[in-house]
Amino acid sequence: MKFCLLLLLLALTAAAQQKDPSASEDADLNAALAEAGSSQVDFIRALENHLAKYPDSTKRPEIERALVKASIESKDEKRIVLYGEHVLDREAGDPQILDRVTRALLSNESKESAERALKYAKRYEEQVAGLRKQPPVGHFSKADWLMELDRGVARALVLEARATGNLGKYEDALALARKSYQEYPTAEGTREIAKWLVKLGRDEEAITRYADAFTISDSRNTDSARTQDRIRMGDLYKKLKGSEKGLGDLILESYDRTTALVGERKLRMREADPNAQAASVMDFTLPALDGDALKLSTLKGKTVIFDFWATWCGPCRAQHPLYAEAKRNFAENPDVVFISVNTDEDRELVSPFLKENHWEIPVYFEDGLSRLMQVTSIPTTIIVNKHGEVASRMNGFIADRFVDMLAERIHQALKD
To answer: What is the value of pTM for the model shown?
Structure first.
């Protein structure tokens, strides 16, 4: 992370040198970053010293954004708030900054901090909810994308509940916590419900909610948090019942309840996205740019060549005629199938690109397949044999050898 930030700032200073006749600031910043080395603390100190020396720096927005990211990485809550609020005052802010600034503000229970936190938590919710109108980004499948957004909205609502409760509005806090759990059932959400139930004197209901937090299937729930849930649950139960007799049955009931809840959610996701439970390449269904989606299971028994590309990828354009030549060489072989897989985040760019460059269709969207197949760069060509196994992988291409190399690997896959 720090290395990426360093490269970003060096690029910014290089660009600024071309535009700004004052090179002394650029030289100072380059020197300070070089001296910081690999130390996160020295990196932050170097940027802070630079801003102190150049308070009117034109690079302040970029430097403060780098500072808040570095502070998040080093878990420095004071600086997360300091630089995070500066960034959020200038721009909408990404969800990570909104989340971490809000949590840092809520690390104390002052009303002043709670009011600021509530403002950011609401912005956080609005931003994440707004992303639901967009197609999946990166290599997310539709189901994974929706799950991440639901979880993000739930996290924002938990923070709204916490801030609202810290302002003394316990009933409103409870309502927001319940809404979070409805958006996406998490240990954090049900734990927040329990917290405000206790504040309202509804201990018996709180016990059940702490049991849910203790038993729910949630990859982000830590052993430490579960231990605390167990302690709170046991203390409340003994307070009401005099001992922990019968608590085990309550925990088992909670386990059955939360397991069913998570299972129902997964079922709904599967219905919304055919790839939600895809465990292998041939389980995937790829949406088409035009026409019907392609169920890869219909290609079992064939050798399939996947071409992963994007409209912005220069090497993909250079490779395309070579790929087309290789495809023509196997046009008469019914056991060889070539699949063009687009990885663009903005799918609206694809159709105009194909028309402008006279590329043939059909073209399919990756819809999470590239993540399953661990495609980390493009162009990437992957050959899958008749057993559904990856037989060969070509990252990038060698122009004068690509067609022959691909043909050799296809012939080898046909023998597997």
So the answer is: 0.70
